[in-house]
Amino acid sequence: MVAYLHRASGGGFTLTLCARPSNGEEFATAEKVRVAGKREANAICKARGAKPWNW
């Protein structure tokens, strides 16, 4: 499982969790979690066993 972190409109970030590195349909339908920053994103990745991909 991998995670992508992107800036969200209105402030904060969106963490997208995918089963494998992807950019297509799987990315569009993947679970998205609103987070405050990298610290919170890292905690979610650690808890779910996901690899931070782009940060």
Key words describing this protein structure:
55 residues, 4-stranded mixed sheet, 2 helices, 29% helix
Task: Provide structural commentary.
- The chain is an alpha+beta fold and about 55 residues long.
- The chain is about 30% helix and about 35% strand.
- It contains 2 helices and 4 strands, in the order ββαβαβ.
- The protein has a 4-stranded mixed sheet with strand order 3-2-1-4.
- Strand 1 and strand 2 form a beta hairpin.
- It starts with a strand and ends with a strand.
Helix/strand layout:
Blueprint: E1 2-7, E2 13-18, H1 25-29, E3 31-35, H2 38-48, E4 51-52
Parallel strand pairs: 1-4
Antiparallel strand pairs: 1-2, 2-3
Quaternary organisation of the protein chains: single chain
Poorly predicted runs: none
- The topology string of helices and strands comes to EEHEHE
Residue-averaged pLDDT:
94
Strand order of the largest sheet: 3-2-1-4
What best-fitting shape do the alpha-carbon axes yield?
Answer: globular
Distance between the termini: 15 Å
| CA gyration radius, whole angstroms | 10 Å
Helix-strand category = alpha+beta
Helix content: 25-40%
Give the helix tally. 2
DSSP, total strands? 4
Largest sheet data: 4 strands, mixed
Strand content: 25-35%
Give me a quick take on this structure:
The protein has 55 residues and is an alpha+beta fold. 29% of the residues lie in helices and 35% in strands.
